[in-house]
Every structure is written in C-alpha cells, then in structure tokens.
Amino acid sequence: MSTPLFQPFVIGKMSLANRIVMAPMTRCRADGARVPKPIIAEHYAQRAAAGLIVTEATAIAADAVGVLNTPGIWSEAQVAGWRVVTEAVHAKGGKIFCQLWHCGRSSHSSMLPEGKLPVSASAIAISNDHVWTAKGKVPYETPRALDASEIPGIVKQYGEAAKNAMAAGFDGVELHSANGYLIDQFLQSKTNQRTDAYGGTVEKRFRLFREVIEAIVAVWGADRVGARLSPNGVYNDMGSPDFREQFLYAAKELNSYPLAYLHVMDGLGFGFHKLGEALTLRDFRGVFKRPLMGNCGYTREAGDAAIAAGDADLVAYGRPYIMNPDLVERFAANVPLAESADMSKWYTNGPEGYIDYPTYK
C-alpha cells in the first residue's frame, strides 16, 4: 500500500513504519492499585502494527486520578506493570508513548487521598455532566483553586512521571493538555480566572503548560515528547471565547521545544463549542513548525487526504482501533472495518470488549 498513511515517518531519531497512530483511549483495565493488568499488554500488542501507539491517559500521581480503574505511573508496581506492556509491544516491532495525565477538576474527592477536593486553576465546577465514582454517578464538586506555591509540586510530579515512563521502557511520552484536564484548565479562560502569574492573559495561562513541558523535556529530550490539544472541544465543559488566540499562541510557543509532534483534536465528532470558526490543522500548520498529528473522526481516505495536502504528518485513530486490532492491515487491504453498536463492555474491567475482537483474516 503506497498511500500517504503508509509512508514511513521519522520523529526525532525514531523511525515509524507508517503514519497511522493508535490514539489514546480510556479503557479502565487497571487493578485497584491502578497497576496495568496483563490484558493491557495483550491489547496493545494486538495493535502494534500502528506506526505509533499512544497509551490511554495515565495518572501521574495518586492525587491526579479521576476515572475508576485507570492506570497510574507513580508507583514501582505500576512501572513494572507498564514494563510488561512495552515489552509486549516492542516484541511485535511497535513503538509506544505514555500519555501523562492530571485530571484536575475532572475528579471527585472519593477517589483522592484523604478525601480531598480536586484542584484546578480556579474554583469553577463542571456543570453539564456527572462523574462516575465507586458509588455511581454523582455531580462534580467545585474544585479548589491551586495556590501558586503548590504549582511547582505539580510540575515536579510530571517530571517524576516522565522518569517512571522511561524506566517502564516507553519510547516517549505525550502530555495530555487537552479535553478539559488540568493543563487545559489552566490554558483556557473559561476555567482559568486567576489574577496571578498563571492567569489573566494568553501568555500567563500558558505558563503551567510551559513549565510542565520543560520538566518533561529535561527527562526525555524534546524529540521524544508530544503534546495534545483540543481547541474546538466541549468535553468536560470546555470552550472559551478567545480559544483561537489562546491555542494558536500555545502552538507557536511550543516551537521553542523541538517536540516529536503536536497532537490536535481538530475533528468535531465529539462536539464543538461554536465560539468562533473551528481551528483546523491548516491553522496550526501556519504557526507550528514541527510534525502535526490530526485526530477525531478520520477515515482512511480523510487521513490520506490530510497528509497529501500537507496539513498532517500523522493521523490518529481512536474508536476504529477498539473493534479492529488489525486496523493497519484492514486499511492496507482496503477491506471494511468491523463496526459494533455494543459499547456496554468498552469500559468494563475484563477482557470482553477489549482483547476479544477478531482480525479480518
């Protein structure tokens, strides 16, 4: 197959067999200590033909979690669990990055150490949804605004998580700075109403992002670090009137770090806040000089077209990878993708709906 998606690509000094990326997707298969279960290794190994795998969001610390049964990367047991995953992917010839995650306000006190409130840029609650806890769905709580003196501790947690990802054998890391989680909460004016050095202007709202990127790059080197943005999204009650200015500023500033890539949720399949003209990959191409990854709702044809047009270098696929562990092979053979309306087992804690999807052959 000689279409653009199947062209090899190099990020930093790492060669990718193709430009198809397995997007990060929360799947809830960790154990009670947030250690990856062996089926996580099998799941990713089944999909190792992707040019690059980006793992599900992985919490950097015990006070960064926000979804039940999702993995962490702060303990020795978690690092050991992830090492099983990376070894399984590498045995199949794959490449895998760990997505580093702090949920911020998208959490609940029942999940956090000592029952403390979630933290955020400002004390503004998610108003249009509920959070799943061990006792079922409950409304989101109003988070506690982080004091400026606490922020260096958050940055340090990211740095330590980056070191743990290296110890676990990952090929790099992606900063989850999208979808209404902590970095995004600081970046966007809707959730950041601070008047200190971390809020009030596009430059100040970017400060935490910058400090975290620098901490991660200090561990990995910039060419093994990616970052993810969701400029158009509404997930976790996001969307800011000045989103175009804020996100294009962030992308331009990231040129200071020769990152592996910038991962942009440019598709509108998960909702659009309609606060201006949607930002496109072409908009980001105008300000960001490193590799760009598109995501959300791409078909094989749309992925080929984005690369051929010069808008994307890589294209990430999420939901199609749930039901098609052989997505690369299906794209190459031009055979139909498996589709299923049954989502009931996607977020359970067992093998069903996770490692039991057949290949087309």
Structure, explained:
- 29% of the residues lie in helices and 16% in strands.
- The chain is α/β, with parallel strands linked by helices.
- It has a single domain (4-333), classed as TIM Barrel (Alpha-Beta Barrel).
- Strands 3-4-5-10-11-12-13-14 form an eight-stranded parallel β-barrel, surrounded by four helices.
- Helix 2 links the parallel strand 4 (52-59) and strand 5.
- It is globular and about 55 Å long.
- The model has no long low-confidence stretch (mean pLDDT 97).
Provide a compact summary of the structure.
With 361 residues, this protein is α/β, with parallel strands linked by helices. 29% of the residues lie in helices and 16% in strands.
Layout: helices, strands, pairs:
Blueprint: E1 9-11, E2 14-16, E3 20-22, H1 38-46, E4 52-59, H2 76-91, E5 96-101, E6 119-120, E7 130-133, E8 136-139, E9 144-145, H3 151-167, E10 172-176, H4 182-187, H5 202-205, H6 207-220, E11 225-229, H7 243-253, E12 261-265, H8 281-285, E13 292-295, H9 300-308, E14 314-317, H10 319-323, H11 327-333
Parallel strand pairs: 3-4, 3-14, 4-5, 5-10, 6-9, 10-11, 11-12, 12-13, 13-14
Antiparallel strand pairs: 1-2, 7-8
